[in-house]
Amino acid sequence: MRDALSLVVCTYKRPAEVDRLLAALAGQRRQPDETLVVDASADDRTAGVVARWRRRGALRRLRHLPAPPEHRGLTRQRNYGIEHAGGDVVAFLDDDTVPEPTYVEEVLACFARHPGAVGVGGYATNEACWRRVAAGQPARLSTFRFAGWERREDRRWRLRRLLGLAPDLPPGFIPPAGHGRPITFLPPDGRDYRVETLVGCAMSFRRSLFERLRFSPVFEGYGLYEDLDFSIRALRHGELYLATRARLEHHHAPGGRPDHLRYGIMVVKNGYLVWRRRWPHPGRRDRLRWWATTLLLAACRPAAPPLLAGLADAAGRLRGMLEVLIAPPAIGEGE
Are 190 and 234 a contacting pair, CB within 8 Å? Predict the structure, then answer.
């Protein structure tokens, strides 16, 4: 008997993106058994998009769920969707993603290949440009190399490597000093990679996991790094994999995001929470490395255009560092 998959799409004021995503889902070789659009918008434009797709009958059990005020914000909307989902696997896609036609079947195939998996992540193909590396080709500071593939290394990562602040663990793992490479640094080679963290734009979990865990409301609103927090807690109950054959594009729509100052604050404070969730008692050297890397990344931010946005982001990061120094956020259990 095959697993049933429920897809939860959390959205806020992005009707055009939802329409594009539903079109991609209608073209899936193996469609979700149900699709739940959890909508925090104050207007009815997204509801109208879903209604039009329902009339077409192109998707199985497509539902529009208006999020009540107490269930608005990304983590709360995720939890609200979980409450209404009935599948053996509960999948999440951001509203600004476009999955390839085999996405759903590849996610389920990865679960089947790994009976110990409680979570599977999808692979965004438009985050970086990879190329195969010939055997014996010398490594360069300007590129990151992994498993016979390489991609361009940006200025921040080059500086971290020069200063000895780059992580010594593979992508998808959080080192004791934090600031690891995300799963976007794994190559598109068709393999399943066991990881510690998944990315919220494309992740799926066994329904049984949600009998023990929910997404943490500590990560309010935009919910930056809530996916990493949940991944770390999920690891206590099973394995996580990135399925590089479960492919999609992630278009990072600008709507519904915090301003640059607020975003910078969240980068530091939420990043601190995730780091200490994974490493509750880091040593002195690792604490110093976390602070040094955080300061370096804040200093690098104004160099990325546009200038005013970069300055606001950097100011937010500095403010976040000050707030963490004065009153470190409480980690809590979050389960």
Answer: no
- Distance between CA atoms of residues 321 and 327, nearest Å: 10
Bridge partners of 34, per DSSP, are 6
* CB of 42 closer than 8 Å to CB of 128: no
Distance between first and last Cα of the chain: 31
Residues 200-218 as b or e (16 or more Cβ within 10 Å = b): bbbbbbbbebbeebbbbeb
Q: What is the DSSP letter of 70?
A: G
Backbone torsions φ then ψ of 92, nearest 5 degrees: -125, 130
d(CA 60, CA 183): 31
Are 60 and 33 in contact by the 8 Å Cβ rule? The answer is yes
Helix (H) or strand (E) holding 98: strand 97-99
What confidence score (pLDDT) does residue 332 get? Answer: 65
Contact yes or no for 101/31 (Cβ under 8 A) = no
Quick: pLDDT tens for 296-309.
Answer: 999 999 988 899 99
Structure pTM? 0.94
Q: Round to whole Å and give the CA distance between 266 and 262.
A: 6
Q: Which CATH number fits domain 5-125+188-250: 3.40.50.1000, 3.30.70.3400, 1.10.10.10, 3.90.550.10?
A: 3.90.550.10
